[in-house]
Fold this protein.
Amino acid sequence: MRYSLRTLAVSVALVAVTLGSWMGYRRSQMCRLEWVAPGSTAASPNTVISQRSDGNFVFIYLPRHRSERVVTSAIRSASDWMCSRDGASDTLRLRVPDRAGAVTILNQLQAADAPQPG
């Protein structure tokens, strides 16, 4: 049997469209979007401040609107604090010696991370 170049091109195009449709369907089933209200608890989860065995208070903060550098530069606290950044999940882990300082730093982070108009 002899096939023309046109038959080969049409066959390849049909196979590509079939595989593309199938992969698109698979990808659409993997990701499910759920729209939430901007002020709901699902849109802005609560950050929990916990006390470690050494007496320090630790919390993990996920910047949502600004970069980690901009958010951490806004911290103005009298208490000592230590910050470590997790690059895989883009979270900040902060350690503060007293609970009042941890609450103050958390409030400053949230204020610096507020969305900017425009």
Q: What stands out?
A: The first helix runs from residue 5 to 30.
